Amino acid sequence: MNIGDAAKQTQISAKMIRYYESIGLLPESKRSDAGYRIYRDKDLHVLRFIKRARNLGFSMEQLKELLSLWQDKGRASADVKAIAEQHVVDLQQRITELTEMRDTLNHLAMCCHGDQRPDCPILSGLEGVITEGCCH
Predict the structure, then answer these.
(1) What gap in Å lies between CA 6 and CA 22, rounded to an integer?
(2) Are 31 and 38 in contact (CB under 8 A)?
């Protein structure tokens, strides 16, 4: 099948498929006599693996490692588990950071009167001046 068909079947854009191929995540596709890329079921399987891993937030470096382990039938599952567990730790750190950001912005928004006054606790907060207990 051609790249358009592969894109439809995997819900990955043709541009991303070409990118994955260019960085070595996906082996270079065979070409037709006219030079068009030809994809096999095996390629679609790899693309679906990539898509699922990316949807779970794995970095490109982690994805390269996971793909390598996936394709190595003699791998130790402990190696795969270590990558997944480190990713969970990284995700938890990001969740903590995002929660702190949300709470700070929520506090600043609640402190803002949202009227015609020129003073704005949101802008003051971005400036680094956070007034405690300013909420109404």
Answers:
(1) 16
(2) yes
pLDDT in tens, 80-129: 999 999 999 999 999 999 999 999 999 999 988 888 888 888 898 888 87
- 47: which residues sit within 8 A by CB, 6+ positions away? 6, 10, 12, 17, 20, 26
* Amino acid sitting at position 127: E
Report pTM: 0.79
Q: Name 5's Cβ contacts closer than 8 Å, sequence gap at least 6.
A: 39
What tokens does 111 get?
A: 């402190």
Q: How many C-beta atoms surround the C-beta of residue 49 within 10 A? A: 18
Element (H, E) at 79: helix 77-111
Q: Contacts from 115-121 at CB under 8 Å and sequence distance 24+?
A: none
Instruction: Residue count of the chain, please give it.
Output: 136
Cα–Cα nearest to 21, from 37, 35, 41? 37
17, 47 Cβ separation under 8 angstroms: yes
**SS3 letters for 32-49?**
CCCCCEECCHHHHHHHHH
